[in-house]
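Possible regression after last week's pipeline update?

I re-ran a chain I had predicted before the update to compare outputs. Posting the input and the new output here so someone can diff against the archived version. Not blocking, just want to make sure nothing changed silently.
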Amino acid sequence: MNDQSGTAQLRFLEETAIRLRQNGFAVEPIEDHHLPVRWEKGRLCRVSGKGSVLYRQECVDSVRAQDALQTVIDTAKMTTEYMAILETAPRLKASGLTGDYRVLADFSSAVLAGHPTERGVQFVTWEWDFDREGVHHGHYFQDDYDAAKRDFIVRSGLVQKDALFEPEQLAQIYHALSFIREQDETLSFGRDQELAELMEQVGGLLPPNVPRQRDAPEQSGMTMK
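New output (post-update):
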């Protein structure tokens, strides 16, 4: 591992630690480019500097523990995404704008920026002035990356607002699918698999802090023997 890669991994783990604390987890000091994560009274898993989540099967032997693990997996995935972009993102140059804002996405009349702070990366979207030398009408999302991305794709015109589901709506769809799979005894095996795949697709769109029902330990990340 070269120094540049190692530094980037440490920045990722430090950011992940901030996000996990915000979601109610406890973290231990980073060891050998791994972040140990605690939940309730014991260690739940470890997050590697490359974004993998390692855990022992006996640590996720209940539905609640599996839900907690999934939240860690989702948080690590989300943080990996924006920290990778942030590593090479250019500074946002706009008249009257001060501070370290990096361009995470730029399309049409809208721009999505990340602002590194001691409390973690903060996110904001703006609309460009007609000459693209200044920005206005900032929408600030603090640490909510998913909400900032949704706002950006609407403001940029990539997707119409009515075509997007809010997190609460996605959660309702997810739990409705779960209820059908659990309660409908007439479901064929093939239909159940189709619903399971749809649940996985919807679940992948849910923010990390939205609870979900999990019925199969094998849906977790990478197992550590």
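Follow-up from reviewer: compared with the archived run. The chain has five helices and nine strands. Marking as no regression found.
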